[in-house]
Structures are given as structure tokens and as C-alpha cells.
Structure prediction request, 316 residues.
Amino acid sequence: MASEMGVPPNRIPVDLDVGGNETGHIGKPIFAKWLERLGFDAQLGPFYLGFWGALSFVCAGAFTFIWLITMAAQVGYNPVAFAKYFVVLQLEPPSAQFGLAFPPLGLGGWWLIATFFLTASILAWQVRLWERAKARGLKPYLAYGFTGAVFLYLVIYVIRPMIMQDWSEAPPHGIKGLLDWTNNVSVRYGNFYYNPFHMLSIFFLLGSTLLFSMHGATVWALEKYGAHEEEAEIDEPGTGTERAQLFWRWTMGFNANAYSIHLWAFWFAWLTGVTGAIGVLLSGTLVPDWFQWAIDARINYPQLPAVPVELPPPTP
Prediction:
């Protein structure tokens, strides 16, 4: 392997030997042994930036600057008030009267500009994941996984508002504003608890936490046997990975090996964002009321009028 990459066979290849030269790398490697106690690798850096990384950081910086400066203006640039009310401050989208038109800056124009930079940053980071994986000889599965989150973001901030021809359907940029938008969409379109794609999203979300906790606990419990070196241990008797597979086979009757557990976790995590995005996309576009949809689908009982109560006549 080392000789194929142009590295002398008597030297172990380092990260800069794989996939190219040092062009685009920033900084030098720093070794902090204490990080190993937290489960991390001891090496920090170097960091590869490149064109797509630089574009992503510049656009993210522009979004962050616009978002923070517009919220600071709401409290008169008072740092104490900004820190106190940070959770409730928000950058609002244009109101419904503007539709998809570009409004004045103070009436939603800054939201459109900020959203443009945020979207550009996310898409540039997606390309960066793909490009870096290809450069390092990896299959771009991390980029595939990121598409679940990107699809959910695009549906919420871009695709659904454009279909409904109304930027006000998108959430504000702000902590409380985003939470309020989530609640309001659920109430406005008939309760998300009856949305089957919301149900699937929650199922995959909870399934992801279960799979990751099972896998993490198993490897952590067998770390003293070197179970973190999974690839070299899959078929070796007496190793940590083999002990883990025996444990789950005895516990459940079958086991997920070191490959399949990551495959399951990938699909569960990816489908969390994708099914959630579909549920949001259908709300208000094809399904105006999820509560009524559940009644029509016979998931919920029809709403019958209350039985009138006949009171006895008053005694004379």
C-alpha cells in the first residue's frame, strides 16, 4: 500500500500521503495526548480548506454577520440586552403580502439575503464532502448521508415556500422563531401527530438513537479487547469484535457485524431527515388538514357532535 502511493516501504504513510500533496492544507499537526482520554485521536490538524471549503466558510460568515447584526439592531446594539434576549430575537421572513417578491430590507429583504448565503454555504459544504472523499479514495457515503439533512433544510426554507408562492411559509432565523414555526405548522395543518411521515421520522430518529447507543456501548465495553479495531477483528477468534458478535447472537438470536451495524445506522439516520422533509413538504401543499386526513384514512375516529343533555324541568 505504501509503495503504491509513492511512499518508501519502510515508512508508515501519514495523512498527507493519501490522495495528493499538501496543497490546500492549513496548519501543522498538533498532538494532544489528553484527547485520547475523551475517545478522540491525539492529532489535531492539519486542516484542508480548498475552494469549496473557503466558499462554504465565507457564505456562512456572511449569513452569521447579517443574522447577528439585524438582531442586534432590534435591541439598539445593546450587548447586555442582546445577550439577555438572544433566544427570542429573530430575523423574520417577508410577510405573506410580498409572496415571492423581493421586499424592502427591513421587511424581509435581509432574511432573503441571509437565507441565500446560508443555502450556498450548506451546498458548498456538500460538494466539499464529496470532493474530499473522492480525493482520499473513499466512497462518498458521508456526502450521501448529508443529503438527508440538506433535503430537509431545502424543503423547509426554499422548496415548500416556492411551491406555496409565499416566503412567509418559511421559518425565521432564530431559536424561538424556529420552535414557534414548528409548532404553528403542526397546528395550522391539523396536528403533525397524524402525519404518517412525521410518524416515520420519529421512528427512524428513535431507532437511530437505539442503534448508535447499542453499537457505542458494545464497542466501549470491549475496548480493552481492542474492539475499536473492528475491521481487523471481524473474523479473528477471541477478539473484542468476535466477543461482541457472540454477545448479540446469544442475546437476540442474531447479530449485526461491524459492517452491518453501521449500514443500519446510516439508513435510520438518513431516513429521519428525508421522511421528515416529505411530511413538511406535503403540509399545506397536498394535505390541508392532517387531522381530517387521518379521519378519511380511518386512522382517527370521525368527530361526532356532542350528545345533547336533557336537564330535568325545575321543580316548582
Q: What stands out?
A: The mean pLDDT is 86. The chain has two domains: 49-188, 196-296. The two ends are 104 Å apart (CA to CA). Strands lie at 25-26, 30-31, 43-44, 47-48.
